[in-house]
C-alpha cells in the first residue's frame, strides 16, 4: 500500500513521524477527518486512528485521536491534469499567457491574446494564490493525446466573484475543446438558488444546502461515472446521471470557443485523475484543499 509520512501529535502533545496509508477512512485503520468532527467511522471492526484538528465525535473507546501539525498535507494521487495557482512563478497581478500543467497529460493552458489573459494574485498573509478570470478571460490547452474516458475524478477550488440564481444564465468555469469530448463545470441557478452544475452529456446540479455565494471559496469534487456520477460542493453530495462523454482537452473561463459563456471567478486549483478514488482518498483531497482555501466542509 502506498504511504506518505506526515508529522502528527497525539493527545499528550508528543511529536511522531507516523505513516498515513493511502485511502484513509472506511476499512482502513487510519481516518483522516481533518476539520470534519462528524466523519463516519466506517463499518469495520477494530480500533481506529483519527487524524485531524477537531475532536472526532464518533471516536470509540480504544481509538486514538492524533492532531496533525501540518493541516495542508496533500495525499499522494497521480494527476492526469493538474493546475495550481500556488505553483505559478510570476509576479503579483501578472497577466498569464500560459499556466503549466504538472499532470501526466502535460498540456499547458494558454492564451495568445493579451486582452483575454487572466490575472495572477500571489499568496499573501493568510491568502492563497489564485488566478482571476472575468469579462472575456479564457485559456485553453491543445488536445490530449487521447480523450480521457470515464470514470474519472475532478477537484476544483473556485471562488465566484459574481453568481446567478437564473436557470438560463451560465457562468462557465471549465469546458472541453468541442461538443464531442466535453466536460463542463459551471455556476447556474435553479431559478431560486445559485448552484453549481456538472455536465458530460447531461447535467447534475449541486445541492441547495451548499449554494454558490459570491466571494466564498468552494471545494468541488466531480465523480464522473456515467449514471452514477456525483458532484460534491464543500462536502454536500448529489448523485445523478451526468452523461458519459470523455474529455478531449480543457478550456477554462468560457465555452470551448473561447468567445462566449464566460465566467467570473477566482481559480486556485483544478485537477483530474483517471479512475475512481476511494471515499478516504476523496475526503483527504477535499480536506487538503479546504485547508488551503479556508473552507469548512459539511459533516
How would you sum up this structure, described in words?
This protein has 1 helix and 21 strands. It is mostly beta strands. The protein has 2 domains: 3-68, no CATH class; 81-276, Jelly Rolls. A hairpin with a 3-residue loop joins strand 15 and strand 16 (203-205). The chain is globular and about 60 Å long. The two termini are 27 Å apart.
Short description:
This is LamG domain-containing protein. This protein is mainly beta and 299 residues long. It has one helix at residues 279-293; strands spanning 3-9, 15-21, 30-34, 49-52, 64-68, 81-84, 98-99, 109-110, 119-121, 130-133, 139-140, 152-160, 171-175, 184-189, 194-199, 203-205, 217-224, 229-233, 236-240, 251-252, 265-274.
- Give the overall pLDDT as a whole number: 87
The top level CATH class name of the largest domain:
Mainly Beta
Named at the architecture level, the CATH assignment of the largest domain is: Sandwich
**Largest sheet composition:** 8 strands, antiparallel
Count of alpha and pi helical runs: 1
Shape: globular
**Radius of gyration, whole Å:** 19 Å
Percentage beta strand: 25-35%
Sequence of secondary-structure elements: EEEEEEEEEEEEEEEEEEEEEH
**pLDDT below 50 for ≥5 consecutive residues: which ranges?**
1-26
Q: In the CATH scheme, what's the topology name of the largest domain? A: Jelly Rolls
Record field, number of beta strands: 21
Number of domains: 2
Distance between the termini: 27 Å
Counting helices, strands and paired strands, the structural category is: mainly beta
Q: Give the fraction of residues assigned to helices.
A: under 10%
InterPro entries: ConA-like_dom_sf
Organism: Herbiconiux daphne
Protein name: LamG domain-containing protein
